[in-house]
Each structure stands twice: as C-alpha cells, then as structure tokens.
Predict the structure.
Amino acid sequence: MSEKKTALVEEMTRLLGKDAVLHRDADLITYECDGLTVFRGMPLAVVFPATTEEVSDVVKWLYAREIPFIPRGAGTGLSGGATPFGGEVIISLVRMKQLLHVDYDNREAVVQPGYINLQLTNSITHKGFYYAPDPSSQANCTIGGNVAENAGGAHCLKYGVTTNHVLGLEVVMHDGEIVELGGVPDAPGYDLLGILTGSEGMLGIVTSITVSILKQPESKETALAYFDSVEDASYVVSDIIAAGIVPAAIEMMDEIAIQGVERATNPVGHPEGLKAVLIMEVDGIAAGIEDQINEMVNVCEHHNVKEIKVAQDDRERGKWWANRKTAFGAMGAISPAYLVQDGVIPRSRLSEVLARIAEISAESGLRIANVFHAGDGNLHPLILFDARNEGETDLALEVGTKTLEACTEVGGSITGEHGVGIEKKEDMRLVFTEEEIDRQLAVRDVFNPNNLMNPDKQFPKPARCGEVKSAVGSGDAYQTVGQD
C-alpha cells in the first residue's frame, strides 16, 4: 500500500475497529458502482461508522488531509451518485440502521440513514400507520439514500416525494461539524431541509432523519386496464386527472415492458400482444372509493379499453404491484443489459413524447421499454442493449440523452427521482443556463467549499471558469462496462 493509504487504514481502524474498514481490491470491487453499472471506479477504502460521532470523526480526519469522500447507502441508486471516480473514501452508512423513535400521536418517526424504506412501514403497520414514499427498490433502499436522491415512487402522485415527508435532519458537515436542521415545530428561516434533500451527498452526510408517518387509508381499490394502443392509455391518464380524481397511483407499462415482467419472476398473466397496461389505485375514506373507481372505469371505456378488472383482495393487489415494482430488473429476462432513464413531462404530452421515444428507438436500432409513473409524468425509458457488441454501450448512453431531450423539449426535466449523479450531469445544460448552474455551484460551495464531499457529481465540467477544485479528477478514468 502507498504511504497515504497505510495511514488512512491505520487511522480508520483506530477510530472504527478492524472489521469496519475495507481496503483490499477484492473487497473494494463491490463498491465500484451503484445501480448504474456502465460507469465504474475503485474507492481508496470503504469505512462503516455506526454512530453520528464516528461519522464526524472520520470526516474531520479526511477533511484535514483533503481526502475526498462519498456517503453511500444501499447502492441502489440509478444515476451513479455513489460511484467513485477512483481515490475517494466511501463512507457506508449501512450499520446505522436503527428505528430510533416513533411518536404515533404526532405521526412522526426518527430513523438512522441505513434504515430500509419498507422496514419502516413493516414496523408500524400493526398500529395502523405506514411511510408513504415507495420507490420500486423500497425493499432494499435506505431512507438516507432516499433523502440524498429525493426519491419518489408509484404513490407520489397523491402523497409526494421524499422531501414532502422529511421533518428534520441531523447532518455531519464537510468539516465534521454536527448540525440539526428542521424538526417539529420547524424554526423560521431558510428551508435548509429542502436544500439538503436531493443534494446527492454533496452538501452533508445525513445521520438521523425525522419523517412523517401516515394512517393507513380506510379503503383502497386497485384496477388493471389493458389497451391496444399507447395513445389510448395516455389519454386515459390525462382525462382521469381532468375529471377531478386524484388517484394514489397511475402506472403504465408498454408492450416491451409487459414482455419483460411476464417472463421474469413475478408474472400475473397479462395477455400477449398488449400495447399498454395501466395499474390504477385510489384510496381514502370508504364512502367515496367505489364511485372513484367506477368513474375511472368509465374514462377507460371512453378510450377503447380492451379489458379492465378490479383487484378482488389484498393478495391480488399485491401480486399486481410486485409485477410492476420489479419491472426494471425484469428487463434482464429479455435483454443482457439495460439503461434506465428518468425524465419528467407534462401529463398532457404523454402520447407525443412516447411517440418520439419510439422514433428514437427505431433510429438507433435499440429497443426501449417504457414503464413509468404516468400520473405525474415521470417517465422511465429502459434502453435495452448488449455491451458485448462494440459501441453499443455508448449508443445506449446517446439514446438516453435523446430521450431526455425529448422530455425537455416539451417543458419537462431530466430527472424526477433518480437524481443526476454522473450519468446526467452534462444533460444539466438541457434545463439550465451556465449562469444558473454557476449559482447552484455557489450554493454547493457554501456547504462543500473544497469539493471533497462526493466530488464532481451533478454539475457539468467545466461548469464555470475556474471550476478546477476537484480533488479527484475530471472523470476520464471511468471504465465503461455493461450488465450481464
């Protein structure tokens, strides 16, 4: 080992214990990427603090020596937000996995960042409560990671994304200082919670999170609707909202996505040859639920629905949702590799943008499966490719950018819940001017003046004249690889 790495390992071992430090290449390879596997790099080391104070001690030591570091949750992120360029220390928060406190009267819970999203609902459901944000990876992703990416989920149409449920944060700053933000009641002043939520680990390391919890709805109904055209399904989405109904969720899968989920581990028997399927859910007070689901059925019937059915019980509902929430991974059943995109558009432009994505697919020769949160216009084009074919990985990345361009051309955005990370940082210029990017960097510099926390993520380089502070490099050392 180099002298620098030897000193690092010795000090981290002293602070955290021998079993809390990884530094051999064979151990570090697991941490060379997150859920975006087309870019990879090796960290200098990985450390596993178990308390806020240990996180603070680690950061103080690294800060004093200008060694860059990356906070990491479960590694389920899809934009390369936790991927090292090569040379950073990864601070893994998976040992900080406790449910610290639940206040049912005030409907709040306090968790450590490594606490699994779905585990919170499972821990409070016996009292009739649940945690609303439900990303598809909720059985594996951590709430700390959700805060970093401002994660959404199928039910964010009605209940909002992570930022709408964060009440307070304990944060270790760039120099190791521990601060508390928000809380109940929230103090007047700037919305620092809003700045930290979705900041992708560049403004601080969250070590405790206070979130709101909700009472389980009194009643719930879920329906599946099958269509012979994507256009008809798209119009249904807009017309349901126009009718004044606010569903808990409206999800869509197209023909290729349906093929994938039906060949994977959670098939439900969707008929062959379908062009689109909608999964729609309403919840709330029992008195009005049946009327809402009936009105949604009527809207579907006005748009040439082929078949529509309502879940008979929780078991059938759960089966339908498992089919949808495992859709990303299910693409592995029909393609050796895939790239997930994450654009946002106005609901009224769904049909138009999906048609453009179909054109992009035909022009490139790569299949694109669409599975997404139709209700709030959050698209997830899944670009299917084979990394073993020369140039196909780069082509998939180019196609990804073209799908984002299609979103921004109709007034949309480049991410709804997956974050920018490294994958889309050059695409920031699709939605921001250089001056706007410069102002965001000025905010980052207040919290992260030496660019040591998750360096060179989210913003394009050079984003401004003189933006040369990186302690790691420009990213030229990325290795491009595929999934298999």
